[in-house]
Amino acid sequence: MLVKPRREFPALLLKVRGTALAQIWPLLVVAGLVSWGLSWLHERFELHWIELTLAPFTLVGLALSIFLGFRNSACYERWWEGRKLWGRLVNTSRSYARQVLTLVRSDDPAAAALHRELVDRHAAYVHALRLHLREQRTWEELAPFLPAGELDALRTQRNVPYALTCRQAERHREAMDRGWLDPFHLPVLEAALTDLLDIQGGCERIKNTPVPLAYTELTHRIVALYVLCLPFGVIDTVGALTPVVVVMVAFCFLGLDAVGSQIENPFEEDPNDLPLSQLSRMIENDVRQRVGHAELRPDVQPERGILL
Asked: 45, 189, 211, 303: which has the highest count of C-beta atoms within 10 A?
């Protein structure tokens, strides 16, 4: 996710890395060169047959603006829903750690050790969910939180976060059987696990159900066709300034199209996606500190203005 500069102006105006301009500038160069070539031919050889009226471009531009607006709204809704789901994950994680500490007995040393085990495994779950959504299998990320044997067993699992919640449920039942957890309190911890799986299911729904490809392809093609044909509509009106006008209009439409594509899947590692690494580390430190971990890993910091 792009970090907002402290001084918004002119920092935002001059920012390129991570913005739509960094993605579309080659297309802007092509549009400028094509329109410059047509403008030169028009002036040099008086090719009046390439002149078109501006009326159809006005109508198509209006319809295209509305079309892009609807698409970007749909993509932003996906991005915002993903952020709300991870906000729920933060709250549920803190509540789960609190419930473990207050509902599971701590007068027995073995029960006290269970506190740390459950909280550490939950930290592993949060990191595993991030890796699952980003389609990464980096086992080293989970090693600080799980025993070696449990970590090896996870290597064969198709859905690692789900497997971790199943193991948590088993440990809840064992704690109840040993008398460390009151049977009336077991549903409280189970409800937290259910909420975690609801959050995971919502994230997987966003990830596995992108905006229909036919819709995206149609948008790309209409924008490209509009930008390439625009010089024919403005060349008679603006003459030598045709490249300037075309590049300005192309920046608007291509930029809107690029922004929608960038935020369509908010769980990837593009500059405008959600900072899952930062959120995962924050949850990890919040819950582990409650069970006595003195050495916590530093929070994830932005790198060159981008927070992953």
From this structure: 189
Give percent helix, percent strand, percent coil of the chain, each to the nearest 5. Answer: 75, 0, 25
Q: Measured over all CA atoms, what is the biggest interatomic distance in the chain, rounded to whole angstroms?
A: 94
Q: Which amino acid is at 212?
A: P
- Asked if residues 285 and 296 have their Cβ atoms less than 8 Å apart, the reply is yes
- Pair 181, 92: CB distance under 8 Å: no
Tens of pLDDT, residues 133-184: 999 888 888 999 999 899 999 999 999 999 999 999 999 999 999 999 999 9
| HSE (side-chain half, CA atoms, 13 Å) at 26 | 1
- 50 with 42: CB under 8 angstroms? yes
pLDDT tens digits for 36-48?
Answer: 888 887 777 666 6
Residue among 120, 185, 112 nearest 147 (CA)? 120
137 in Cβ contact with 101 (< 8 Å)? no
Identify the CA nearest to 145 among candidates 125, 165, 167.
Answer: 125
Distance CA(54)–CA(232), nearest Å, equals: 8
Distance CA 247, CA 255 (A): 11
Residue type, 26: P
DSSP type of residue 107: S
**pTM reported for the whole predicted model:** 0.89
Q: Across-strand partners of 104?
A: 181
What is the spatial distance between Cα 124 and Cα 143, in angstroms, rounded to a whole number?
A: 8
